[in-house]
Design goal:
There is one protein chain. It is built from 20 helices and 27 strands. The strands form 5 sheets. The chain has an 8-stranded antiparallel beta sheet, covered by helices on one side. A 7-stranded antiparallel beta sheet has the order 5-6-7-8-12-13-14. It has a 5-stranded parallel beta sheet with strand order 19-18-20-21-22, sandwiched between helices. It folds into 3 domains: 3-246, Glutamine Phosphoribosylpyrophosphate, subunit 1, domain 1; 250-449, 3-Layer(aba) Sandwich (Rossmann fold), CATH 3.40.50.10490; 455-592, Glucose-6-phosphate isomerase like protein, domain 1 (Rossmann fold), CATH 3.40.50.10490. The chain is globular, with a radius of gyration of 25 Å. Strand 16 (275-276) and strand 17 (279-280) form a beta hairpin. It is of the alpha/beta class. The longest helix has 20 residues, at 405-424. The structure holds 2-deoxy-2-amino glucitol-6-phosphate. 2-deoxy-2-amino glucitol-6-phosphate binds next to helix 10.
């Protein structure tokens, strides 16, 4: 997820672009850049790696760049490491067409190959340079910006919010979007565009939200809109009621709630990137079928929620790919003199890619000569750079300390890796493979239906404000999700909680159950649910308060005070759905207790110390 801005008017553009990017820096901050065009169409580009301040210093707050029209970008790398070359804006060979982009061009590799065959050369690793040169290709063909951009939109697959400068059209901006946000404003004197409202609120609260595949033309303080056939379209003006601070969260009260609600898109982006033409495409990871076939054991290491993803992956990989999997806390793995036959694959899971214990586990594995695969969300992070193979999740910057969307994206990574191993080991028929992939692609919509029913969860959370202890219990994958539900509750509501394998409770911990202890049961594994229900009843007989997350249609005893149903899916993918009510429950309970949800006490987003 990146941030884009645009301005055309009577003032110097560069300082305005920089100020707009500052308001969007939460969307991505590994590099930034601006392009400014003067009245003669001459376009100047300035880019810098690192936070926005590095660019500001480089162009002296924008004073070194002259022109009343420009575009800018703050980057969250998805293709290519964060450096100045890969930073946006990107341009054609003579800088007569310059663009910034937020999104993912899924078919960029095939488009790049086609452009190379037509004589284009590339200086960066980004999909955005491909997009820019594709616009250039069609501009040379049609000689007209609207048609060039329309043709671009017909050829690319994926998501984009694209803003383009054409030197033949000085002081004008053309823009198009698909699935990535873009908001536009025109005051009669000036025009603005941005990924998000915060960048515009200083100038106006009246904005246009353009729809997918609509093209905007910003010029002389006016903006006109077209469909990709070139027909003018009318877009209603929206009056923004949020203040600037709220707007950074898209109107959500906290980043955590915004990120919980981003999960459908994040999963769609991650699946869309790696599923090409009905097949899982790991070519970017260089994980060949031959290598996948050679792996006879997998070790997964991570911390916190990343570790919980590993526990879930163990069930899925062993079930689908029949490869033994061991899951380790990274902080333990690094000190274990584990026995190795030298053929294990070690998977390190880390949102930040900078967790000290996980880096140490990675280095321990490499010191033993083992191949390593990183599942990370930050391009160019330490773990990403040091691992042999890297699976980049497409969750975008996760601001809230308590992970939600990155956790969900990591789960999806696990499903795809399990399926890839199963395919390489010829364990799935074509029909089974297709059925599982299509079930995966239904997850975003199923998560949306859960999110739409969060009122009951909010009400239940509100009644749990005085709870002192909680248990989350389940069997199999439900146990893995219990771990995540318990951690979410602990880290943001400060209520003590334990995740327990449901069958283990009676071996001691049940002595802790007393009148009013909250026990959350997860019941998505049909063949195990009946036993977990018995365990829940055992706690009920000791006056526990029961809540349950279950697939729609599951019979749940009347003793369960609250039941949160989730749509059915393949049991192996259930964690992606059953975790949602638990995230919401922890969130609303934290809010009702007046805690600092996004920055809980004692915690940091990335634990870079041991
Ligand atoms: C999860 O909500 C916590 N913020 C924490 O457990 C986190 O998952 C853990 O510190 C690992 O972080 P990483 O994924 O960046 O390595």
């Amino acid at each position: 997820m990146c941030g884009i801005v645009g301005y055309t008017g009577k003032k110097q553009a560069a300082p305005i672009l920089l100020e707009g990017l500052t308001k969007l820096e939460y969307r991505g901050y590994d590099s930034a850049g601006v392009a400014v065009s003067d009245a003669y169409g001459r376009i100047e580009i300035a880019k810098a790696q690192g936070k926005l301040d590095v660019l500001k210093e480089k162009i002296d707050g924008g004073k070194t760049m002259h022109g009343a029209c420009g575009i800018g970008h703050t980057r969250w790398a998805t293709h290519g490491v964060p450096n100045e070359t890969n930073a946006h804006p990107h341009c054609n060979d003579d800088s007569t067409i310059v663009a910034v982009h937020n999104g993912i061009i899924e078919n960029y590799a095939e488009l790049k190959a086609k452009l190379i065959r037509r004589g284009y050369q590339f200086y960066s690793q980004t999909d955005t340079e491909v997009a820019t040169k594709l616009v250039d290709y069609y501009y040379k063909k049609h000689g007209e910006p609207l048609k060039a951009i329309a043709e671009f939109s017909l050829r690319v697959r994926g998501s984009y919010a694209l803003a383009v400068l054409f030197s033949d059209y000085p002081e004008e901006i053309y823009a198009i979007r698909k699935d990535s946000p873009m908001v536009i404003a025109a005051t009669g004197k000036e025009c603005f565009l941005a990924s998000d409202v915060p960048a515009l609120l200083k100038y106006t609260k009246n904005v246009y939200y353009i729809e997918n595949d609509q093209i905007a033309h910003l010029k002389n303080g006016q903006t006109s809109f077209y469909n990709i056939d070139g027909d003018p379209v009318e877009i209603p003006l929206t009056h923004i009621t949020w203040d600037a601070q709220a707007a950074e969260k898209d109107g959500y009260e906290h980043y955590m709630l915004k990120e919980i609600h981003e999960q459908p898109r994040v999963i769609k982006d991650t699946l869309g990137y790696f599923i090409q033409n009905g097949k899982i495409d790991f070519s970017e990871l260089n994980l060949t079928d031959a290598y996948l076939k050679s792996v006879n054991k997998i070790i997964i290491a991570g911390c916190g929620s990343a570790y919980h993803v590993g526990v879930a992956m163990q069930y899925v990989i062993e079930d689908l790919a029949r490869i033994p999997v061991r899951v380790e806390l990274a902080s333990e793995f690094r000190y274990r003199s584990f026995i190795s036959d030298g053929k294990e694959l070690v998977i390190i899971i880390s949102q930040s890619g900078e967790t000290a214990d996980s880096i140490a586990a990675l280095r321990e594995a490499k010191s033993r000569g083992l191949k390593t695969l990183a599942i990370v969300n930050v391009v160019g992070s330490t773990i990403a750079r040091e691992a042999d193979f890297v699976f980049y999740t497409k969750a975008g910057p996760e601001i809230s300390v308590a992970t939600t969307k990155a956790y969900s994206a990591q789960l999806v990574a696990g499903y795809l890796i399990a399926l890839k191993f199963a395919e390489a080991h010829s364990l799935l028929s074509d029909g089974q493979y297709r059925e599982l992939l299509s079930e995966l692609c239904l997850l975003p919509e199923k998560i949306k239906t859960i999110l739409e029913k969060d009122t009951a969860i909010q009400q239940f959370a509100f009644h749990c404000m005085d709870k002192k202890n909680a248990f989350f219990i389940g069997r199999g994958l439900d146990y893995a999700v219990s771990m995540e539900g318990s951690l979410k509750l602990k880290e943001i509501s400060y209520i003590h909680s334990e995740a327990y394998a449901a069958g283990e409770l009676k071996h001691g911990a049940i002595s802790l159950i007393e009148d009013g202890t909250l026990v959350f049961g997860i019941l998505t594994q049909d063949e195990l649910a009946e036993k977990t229900v018995s365990n829940l009843e055992e706690t009920k007989s000791r006056k526990a308060q029961l809540a349950v997350v279950a697939f729609e249609g599951t019979e749940v005893p009347k003793s369960c005070e609250c039941v949160f149903y989730v749509p059915r899916t393949d049991a192996r993918f259930a964690a992606s759905l059953s975790v949602i009510p638990l995230q919401l429950y922890a969130y609303y309970l934290s809010v009702s207790k007046g805690n600092n949800v996004d920055k809980p006490r004692n915690l940091a987003k990335s634990v870079t110390v041991e």
